[in-house]
Amino acid sequence: MAEKRLFLEDGESTGALERILACIEFSKAIMGICDLETLLTRVLERIRQLIPARNWSLLLLDPKTLELYFAVTVGIDPEPLKGLRLKLGEGIAGTVALSGRPIFIPDAPKDPRFCPRVDEVTGFTTRSIIALPLVVRNQVIGVFEVVNVEDEEVFTARYLPLLNILADYVAIAVDNVYNLQKLQARTFIDEVTGFYNTRYLAAKLDRYLEEVTTSGRELSLVFLDLDHFKRVVDAHGHLAGSKVLAEVARVLASCLGPEDSLVRYGGDEFIILLPGLGQEAALEVVRRLRRTLNQARFLQEEGLNLTVTASYGLATMPKDARDKDTLLRLADRAMFRGKDRGKDCIMVGEDLTPVT
Length: 356
What we know:
Helices cover about 45% and strands about 20% of the residues. The chain has helices at about 15-30, 35-50, 90-100, 115-120, 150-185, 200-215, 230-235, 240-255, 280-295, 325-340; strands at about 55-60, 65-75, 85, 105, 130-135, 140-145, 220-225, 260-265, 270-275, 310-315, 345-350. The strands form 2 sheets. The protein has a 6-stranded antiparallel β-sheet. A 5-stranded mixed β-sheet has the order 8-9-7-10-11, with helices on both faces. Helix 1 (about 15-30) runs parallel beside helix 5 (about 150-185). The longest helix has about 35 residues, at about 150-185.
């Protein structure tokens, strides 16, 4: 495809057909890609073949912060742009994202909508901008910008219509990846608590095992089981029991850091992953978990004031184990030793003495 002449001189009868074929090939190349990084790389490769522009950017809208970030840049160093974000309405890209309408500005620095922040952090000089919204189901999910077109008249006449079509294809492909990510995320979520399930645990442990093996980073794992939880279910029913589990999960999660993961292992058992923490640091986290859980009150909206305790088992890789199965087994065994010693306590690795 790269060797084929996609665009013919004006007046050649096959020019329109060549452009249609180029669009079809572009759509075939990016549709069906399942991860965003691969998609953006493919978009970068293909648009370089199709659009004669030295400088262009693809910005995507972060749905959580409603800010634009630079996903792909061509013609400038992308490093200074990694932390830069544009609010809706900020700059040309922000204006396009807010309005959903394309903008062509031949003299950008003189336009009051122009934001010089990008030029300031990159040292680039922007003269002209063509900005197109990426729209799916009437929602803007990003902006495509072409900067400093050398022959604006030729570009606008010959390539801008093609760029509009390509922007639509990119928008659909990005939206497909987002939808797949949401679907995959749901497969990792426990329906009762709203936190992670065992599918997530299996996938994450494999990744952490690789980090421990290659970089020497430690990983601590906590196995905890609620004490006498059957009494709650027997006294108040299964629905109340499920609500207690959800409330317990939120209490536990409140004690964890952004890298830590809370997993419902099954029934009234939970696993907590503490990446990067050795045994002593992890033990402090478990102590905090125990204090917080013991002080919490549950089913208060139902007029009840229940208390819940748990038994905790802690194991650390590579101190206690070299593989995930041994890590899980040691933490599980430590937790059950705590059960045997009267519950509501913390046991570590193969040690036989509860930790206070």
